[in-house]
Amino acid sequence: MTPDDLLLDKVSQWVAKYFQGARCACCTFHDYNHTRETVAAGRKIAKGMQVSADELETVLLACWFHDLGLLHARDNHEAISAQIAEDFLTKHGVSKEKIEHVKICILATKIPQSPNTLLENIVCDADISHLGEDNYFEKNTLLRQEFELNRGKLYNNVEWWELNRVFFQEHQYFTPYAHQRYSAQKKLNLNDITKRLKKSKEKPVDTNEGSNT
């Protein structure tokens, strides 16, 4: 392993233990699996954008830490995640400049996303890459559970699919690589959401409706 690989290996193991220790029953979507998938997408997009090894490390560090704040609070969790990253990386001798870049990338993922640099663009695209994956509706079921648990509200299907439709239409991928990689499937997913919304509107509204069809 190179020194950079050693740091990332330490981070991945520490983050896994952090999730295990938190045992957050309300994080059905934003769990360790989502973090691992975000890291994998971040690596793929970063390489597609041909960033340097140092920039790739920044992206991966930000992806590993980006959602840890959710284990403590829903509101402004990005700031908490950034602080957790700073505390860990400082203890492991990472430079202040690198830590600031990691923190800024994490903060950029706050919805609505607001990236300003290439690395921020990559992390934001990685975080929402599931919109353009063919398993989106499996992830959507987990996200719906998380929304209902944390907001104390049961969404009927009209409400839920309308919420999804608006989010899809307002979202954009920032990097050319992510746009090329994810946009086609994202369009298919949006078409499916639109069909589900139309079908739901044709049925009587049931406020306790739990189906994802």
Walkthrough of the structure:
This protein has 213 residues and is mainly alpha-helical. The protein folds into two domains: 3-126, Hypothetical protein af1432, CATH 1.10.3210.10; 136-201. The chain is built from nine helices and no strands. It is globular, with a radius of gyration of 18 Å. Residues 207-211 have low confidence and may be disordered.
Topology summary:
Blueprint: H1 3-22, H2 32-48, H3 53-65, H4 77-91, H5 96-107, H6 118-127, H7 136-151, H8 157-170, H9 176-201
Radius of gyration: 18 Å
CATH superfamily of the largest domain: Hypothetical protein af1432
Q: How far is the N terminus from the C terminus?
A: 47 Å
CATH fold-level label of the largest domain: Hypothetical protein af1432
Helicity, as a percent range: 55-70%
Q: Which overall shape is indicated by the principal axes computed on the Cα atoms? A: globular
The structure class reads mainly alpha
**Relative strand content:** under 5%
Count of β-strands: 0
- What is the top-level CATH class of the largest domain? Mainly Alpha
Average pLDDT rating: 93
* Uncertain stretches: 207-211
Order of helices and strands: HHHHHHHHH
Number of domains: 2
The CATH architecture of the largest domain comes to Orthogonal Bundle
Largest sheet: none
The total of helices stands at 9
